[in-house]
Structures are given as C-alpha cells and as structure tokens.
Sequence to fold (190 residues):
Amino acid sequence: MRGVGNLITLEKVRQRAESDAKTYGYYLHPDPDFLKDLLEGLKRNEERYGYPSCPCRLASGKFELDRDIICPCDYRDPDVQEYGACYCALYVRKDLYEGKTPILPVPERRPMEKQVRTYGTAVAQSALEKPAEKAEVTPQESAAEIKLKLWYCKQCGYVVFREEPPYICPICKAKRELFAEIKIHVDIRG
Fold:
C-alpha cells in the first residue's frame, strides 16, 4: 500500500462511485457481478498506487502520468455523452441502466502518446522489480519531462494545473474549447 492512511474497503469505493454517479446524473453498471469486478479493480489500484486509476487501463504508478485516468477519468463525460457509458462501463446513462439500450464497447479516447508513455513506464518499473531479467524498453517521457500548464475556464473561471485542459469543466460543464492557457512571465530583477 502506497501512503494510503485509511483502510480502503469495497464499500467505500462503491459509495464514492455511487455519490459521483448521482452528482452527475449517471448510474453504475446494472450487472452486479460486473460492477463488483470494476469496484474491486478500483480498490486494488488505489491500494497499489495510492489513487483509484481506471481498472480497465494500464497505470504507470506515477500520479502525474496517470492523472487523466484516475476514476472518474477525464474521458468519462464525453464517453457517456457519445456512447452511453464510460470506457470501462462503470458509469452509464439511464437508458443503458434500464436495459432499453444495450451496453456496447466504447473505443479508447485516451491519446496514444499517453498510452505509450504509461506502457513504457510500467515496463521499466517491472524490470526494476525483477533484476534478473533485462528490459530493453525505456519510458518515452519521464514524469519530470511532463509540461504542466495553467488552464482556466473562460465560462466560470475554474483553474487547473495539468498537461492539457479537461474535456469538460468539472464546475460548469463547459467543453474543452472554452479553456485557455494562462501564460505567466516572471522577471526577477535584483
């Protein structure tokens, strides 16, 4: 367990997901066995990494690299809007929850460069844990090389410090296009 003070229980993970679903007008997957598997994956990832990364994606174990796939991930809202469910189908629309519309696979929306970077980091970490084996793969970009920027929502003023703006503003639900980068220039004269 990485720096997690409180014991993570399946019930806490479920309550957090239910609360988030209710807040945003979503439902959790209607199949209780499938839902339990997803919640157990979130619990396992939170115990392993210290944050609940998506159970259906490879996590690097580095918060900055995985920020976009921490559940609920950055891609959830546009996926639910377009396909009725998020990538892992933890969150679904009402019509899918009620069985009026089938739950179909959702294509991966996470940019390929982020997937590759995560894969390279995970492989390199795995090689460090198993010194007897030699690994040829090195991460394309380390956590130190990530270019974080300040972004603000032109609609509500929400400010976030990250690599890219979110797909949807968590405050006012404005789309990504309404985010602008804040450029700061500091000149120190002495």
User: Anything to note?
Assistant: Helices lie at 10-24, 32-49, 63-66, 76-83, 94-97, 112-129. The domain at 147-190 is CATH 2.20.28.10 (Rubrerythrin, domain 2). Confidence is low (pLDDT under 50) at residues 132-144. The first strand starts at residue 27 and ends at 28.
